[in-house]
Design goal:
Arp2/3 complex 21 kDa subunit ARPC3, 6 helices, two-stranded antiparallel ribbon, 172 residues, mainly alpha
Length: 172
Amino acid sequence: MKSTALPTKTKTIVINALFIALTLVATMFIDIRLPIMGNGGLIHLGNVPLFIAALVYGKKTGAIAGAFGMGLFDIISGWAIWSPFTFIIVGTMGFVVGLISEKVPGNRYLVNTLAVAIALIIKIVGYYFTEVILYGNWIQPFGSIPGNVMQVVLAGIIVVPLAGRIKKQITK
């Protein structure tokens, strides 16, 4: 009897492509723009598939999903100037969340919460300095912080309780 399982390389490519697409779609179609000064901030659910990718499949898939999924969002949405920054910032978020989840021992719920909290810091600091570079202003970027906090916290609330269950289901 032939095995129907995908070879490891093919499976990895498919999973990475799936999470790139899910991150792109969740960022593009499930978003709210905040009416705050400057850029104002954007709340979207793109961090949900990004964090699932990182917590369930690891740092490489998390980095790929974040970098390419949200980087493509910027290009498609007409914000191409943001894309290289997003690629680095969100790719780093995905990598770090996956790395912490893989390497830090202990209660998975607490470890994954810590991973999301560190991703929040990466996002706030990364986008703050990106806006300083793009706008040439040290004050205006503060207007984006509430949106960045809300989108990561919301994603954490959704993903952290589910990540362990999803991982158990795929490893059965």
